[in-house]
Amino acid sequence: MVTASSASIASTALTASTASAASTESTPSTVSAAFTDAGRARQIASTVPDPELPMLTLADLGVLRDVEVGADGTVVATLTPTYSGCPAMAEMRAAVAARLSDAGYARVEIRTLLDPPWTTDWISPEGRRKLAEHGIAPPGPAPRPAPGPVPLVLSPTRREVACPLCGSADTEETSRFGATSCKALWRCRACREPFEYVKEI
Ligand SMILES: [Zn+2]
Hints:
The chain is of the alpha/beta class and 201 residues long. The protein has two domains: 31-134, Fe-S cluster assembly (FSCA) (GMP Synthetase, Chain A, domain 3), CATH 3.30.300.130; 160-201, no CATH class. It is 28% helix and 17% strand. The protein is built from five helices and seven strands; from the N terminus they run H-H-H-E-E-H-E-H-E-E-E-E. The strands form two sheets. It has a four-stranded mixed sheet. Strands 1-2-3 form a three-stranded mixed sheet. Helix 4 (88-102) links the parallel strand 2 (75-79) and strand 3 (108-112). Helix 2 (38-46) crosses helix 4 (88-102). The protein starts with a helix and ends with a strand. Zinc ion is lined by residues 163, 165-166, 168, 188, 190-191, 193.
């Protein structure tokens, strides 16, 4: 009790001294309008690249779900991880927090939203264009699970993946997993080039 009350006095004193010195310090005592603008914060958070698909931003991927700024200037960014247990998630969280604090936001909170789960359908048209530009076949529409029990499918779904380099549909999967688990390796029979393909989920 004694400790708590003396701590609270110390903190009050500190706040008072900060406020009185506000006119000569670069840190304003009140949060400036620029830092309560959610649009600005969102724009900054939107520029963070995905660690696994660095040609895409977290906004292109649809991983960045929401950015809000509280009255006290706290930025709350909500992310939905691409794949459950995706090791890149910790990196994404840290990157968004770092980008926002570099931009001057003193209080940044990163929230993780798991429901609804991320789907490749959330990749923006701009994101799909960037993937193809980098020789990666963008995902097709994600399969919509029917309500009720999930059927166990033992044979892989047959997919038509167009070659991102020459456009030919004469392609084949060479490996279910590429450099990262979200991509498969494919090969084009027409131009003989291997390419990666972002699997739809
Ligand atoms: Zn090709």
